[in-house]
Specification:
Rna Polymerase Sigma Factor, Chain: A; mainly alpha; Arc Repressor Mutant, subunit A
Amino acid sequence: MNEADDQSIHDDRRDAAAAQRGDSAAFERLIQRHQQSVSRLMWRFSRDERMVRELTHDAFVAAFDSLRTYRGDGAFGGWLRTIAIRTGYRYWKRNRRLAAFVPLEEAPQAVTPDPRGASHEAAEELFRLLERLEPDDRVVLTLYYWEEYSVNEIAERLGWSQTYVKVRLHRARGKLKRLLLQKGMEESR
């Protein structure tokens, strides 16, 4: 860890403790420091710019409501990412019936290209295919492959067992493979 990271962690802990005591300016500083990373994460859950802003806002509201549970043992950013992931996951679960009925060609377009370097078109196509999966499958694939979390980290963030994460990941890969094969067959017609 470098000196800037140490300072940021120290600032986060100081501001989190102050916010727990009712200092709204301290919580505002936490928002300013973490808003970009939370927004980037929320982009994984929606390609609609308005919804990304809404999910980001919801994640910070949930963090504020849960602030009393932050003990300062770990990095505030990690604690906040867990809340943000659960916020996005709940969004998927609420909207899964709607997503199942959105034809691929009508799925919303991305607000930015994929930060991991995939072509914009390939990233969009993959996002549209992921929308056809159940939320549990989508979240494990997203966290494992795009956020590069380990099985253990996914289990901790979602409150699931490692076994459940492994099984979901295995099944989700199979479902995504079938969707890709189906799409390939449709395109070859």
